[in-house]
Amino acid sequence: MSISIPEIKLNDGLTLPVIGLGTYKLNGNEGANSISGAIDTGYRLIDTAYIYENEGTVGKAVQRASVPREELRITSKLPGRYHSYDKAVTTIQESLYRANLDYYDLYLIHWPNPKQDIYVEAWQALIDAKKWGLIRSIGVCNFLPEHMERLEKETGIKPSINQIELHPFFNQEEQRIWHHENNIKTESWSPLARASEVLQNETIRSIAVNHDKTISQVILRWHYQLGAISIPKSSSPERQLENISIFDFSLSDKEMGRIAELTRPDGRINDQDPAIYEEF
Ligand SMILES: NC(=O)c1ccc[n+]([C@@H]2O[C@H](COP(=O)([O-])OP(=O)(O)OC[C@H]3O[C@@H](n4cnc5c(N)ncnc54)[C@H](OP(=O)(O)O)[C@@H]3O)[C@@H](O)[C@H]2O)c1
Fold it and tell me: Member of which family (predicted)?
């Protein structure tokens, strides 16, 4: 059974499905089978990164996939250690070689690394790689409004998407509003909070029982109704199917409000505040 996932349009015209597959920790042959199985189930958006060391695995899954390349949306990300312009250009090429792809649909700067402070150089490399046809859409992850304002001020181009930590314990309301006002799509990483205590939460459980759905399905429906693209990772075919079977019910405003109340200032999984945290 293959499920059809609704799509949204980015500010540069590229369309993306509203749910994709996270691939952190899906590596090697097993990972490639898991990803190509997800494509058979209906996933079209696949999220990898240079530092996950599985761009090759994703490329293998694309080769094995039952659907043509042009129906897929493959994302990768530039690591912090390669933000300088020349290194960023080479890394984008290396990312493509690893995956054996001619282009990425979406390429993101993985972290702003504000102390290092050369993310604008990295952004210029993404802008040029897009012009050269290596990338169809360019965006960022973990950028704060001040970082994105600077990109636009210094290059004239703003990101199509910002991928940020977002789940019921850390719902990023202010940042989501800012994205909406600036026509930048929000993409949620760790949308299930890495299957931590959120999957035991009593409030969400009671909502799930009402709809005859699982807690994960309620959370992923909540992301969808917030207008965010989510990229849950699962290695299991059953859970992959479960996670995209969310288009046959809806949450009421009251239920959305009850989930909104679960957020907390210290709700980040690993305390990775992009204003200070740096990743290389
Ligand atoms: N840009 C960034 O800085 C950044 C940071 C972190 C992550 N990401 C991206 O976001 C993706 C998703 O985040 P994540 O992998 O950290 O966490 P996640 O998707 O919130 O959770 C993944 C965990 O949930 C389990 N799971 C999935 N579906 C389930 C279900 N229906 N019921 C119960 N358990 C379920 C998975 O186990 P099984 O595999 O066993 O099903 C796995 O342990 C990553 O894979 C990566 O692509 C980006």
Answer: Belongs to the aldo/keto reductase family.
pLDDT tens track for 229-252: 999 999 999 999 999 999 999 999
Which of 43, 50, 52, 224 is labelled catalytic? Answer: 52
* Cα dihedral across residues 6, 10, 13, 16: positive or negative: negative
Domains and CATH numbers, the chain: 7-261 (3.20.20.100)
Q: Is 28 left (phi over 0), alpha (psi -120 to 50) or beta?
A: left
Helices (H), the chain: 28-41, 55-64, 85-99, 119-131, 145-155, 173-181, 202-211, 215-226, 237-244, 253-260
Ligand 1 pocket, 269 CB below 6 A?
no
Placement of tokens 């199917």 in the chain: 241
- Answer yes or no: is pLDDT of 1 > 70: no
Which ligand 1 atom lies nearest to the CA of residue 279?
3
Output the average pLDDT for the chain.
97
Classified as helix, coil or strand, 170 is strand
**Which residues fall in the annotated binding site for substrate?**
110
Q: Which two tokens stand for residue 190?
A: 């760790």
Ligand 1 centroid to 166 CA: how many Å?
12
Q: Can 103 be counted among the known catalytic residues?
A: no
| Residues present in the chain in total | 280
